[in-house]
Structure formats: C-alpha cells, structure tokens
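Q: Could you fold this chain for me?
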Amino acid sequence: MSEPLISQDEIDAIARELMSAYETGRMVSAPPSQKPGFDVNASYAVEAKLKHLREEAGHKAVGRKVGYANKAMWRVLTLETLVWAHMYDDTVHYTESNSATLTLPKARSLKIEPEIVFGLREQLVGGKPDATAALGAVEWLALGFEIIDCPFPDWQFQPRDFVASFGLHAALVIGERLQVGRDNIATLVETLAKFKVRMSKNGEFVEEGSGRNSLKSPALCLAELSTAIAKRFPAEPLSGGEIVSSGTLTAGHSLEKNDLWKAELGGLPLPPLTLRLE
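A: Sure. Below is the predicted structure, expressed as structure tokens.
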C-alpha cells in the first residue's frame, strides 16, 4: 500500500474521533475527506487503526464487508474497485428460525440492506475475478441483513469516509446457511447472477432487488474483493473462517424501532429472513 499523504499523528487523531463517535453514538461534524491530504491510503490506515483499537478492547475481527459494489458508481466517484472494512465478533449475529430481534442503543439513523453473506472454508487468493474459483473457497452462503449507520451529517460522505468509519457497519444479521460444495457450485454460479430478493416492511412491499446489483453476482463481488485486497494488502488475504458481506441487493431503507422487515428470495433455496429493531 502506498503511504498516506497525512501523518501518523493525524491518522491516529481521526481514528480516535471516529471511535468515540462509534462508541457513544455522537455525530462527527465533518467527514475526514474534507481534510487536506485525506486520500484512500489514509482511509485504510485509519481503518487499520480502528481495528487495532477494537482488538485492544477485546474484540475480534471476523470478516469484511463490501461497499460500492456497483461499477457505475466507480465511474462517478473515480474508484478503481470496491472498498471494504472489517466486521467484528460483537456486530455479527446469527438468527434462530431465520428471525431476529436486534437492539442497537447507540444508533443514529439506521438503514437496512439485504445482502448475500459468504463463510469461507479456506484462503481466497486474489487473481482475475472468477465466480467459480471464488465459490471454491466458500463453505456456506446465506441471506443477511446489513445494518448501517452514518456518523456524518445528512448521510453525506465519500468512499474514503466509508472505509474510515467502519464501513458504516452497525450490525450484520445472518440467516440460514446453504452449504457450498463441488455438487452445487456450477448451479450457484448461474443462480447467484439471476436470483431476486423481495423486501417488505410490516407486510407491505418496498422494493425488489437482484443478485446482479452486486457486481452482476455476489460471487463475482467476492472475487473482486479478494483481488482488491491482494493488490492493496497482499499479506492480509481473505482467510478460512472469515465472513464476507457482499454488497447490498437493493437501496438502503430506513430502519425504525418496531418495524418488521422481511426479505424473500426467488431463485435461491433459502427461506425468508425477518428482523425487528427493538
């Protein structure tokens, strides 16, 4: 990774400000992208510092979440690839009977996004993005709800702010897991590019999305992530046991207390997933 344009002291100060906002639920007056010299390299340096601070506090990074899994956005924002941030053992939740109730007391203005989540069996080494090769490293996949929260006013931020603020990650809720193996990889390569997801709130339809909204397939998104990580952090590849949340399949929708959200899949053999925020 290239060296950031700002000093380590500035990186540490930004990380501590964002950590304080994360721990207290306070807002940050302006995103770090407004600071001179805060480039993508600086954002990943802040993300690494946040990971260190969370580990010092006794938490473990358990995977990574993707942002900007949409090539049209890359052109608009002059990105070369997607971006990512770590997820932690206290933010990833598994459901019972594909239903969850979540409490997030320090939230500001939450949004909910349906995503395909992968659990890796083995290390995934970056190369030319290939869905079949990526699924070969996967142990299971599941439907999940990614819950995001923004510490910046009016949800205004740049990709480098996303990286430096935990990827806006507040929680990940994981539904029933589908095992991935030699017998179903070829089928999954096809269906992951075609399946649909239907989002409803309190029984009323909200939006339909598709696997194509995540880089034409969540499997391709996983492959792109491994390639991007290999280029920037060759010593930190995606490893066995990691969880990857592969990018939203619809727009993000406001998540309010007591609303019951439901995601239903068409084309993937997984049951509906529901979530209520307390």
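A (continued): Residues 8-24 form the longest helix (17 residues).
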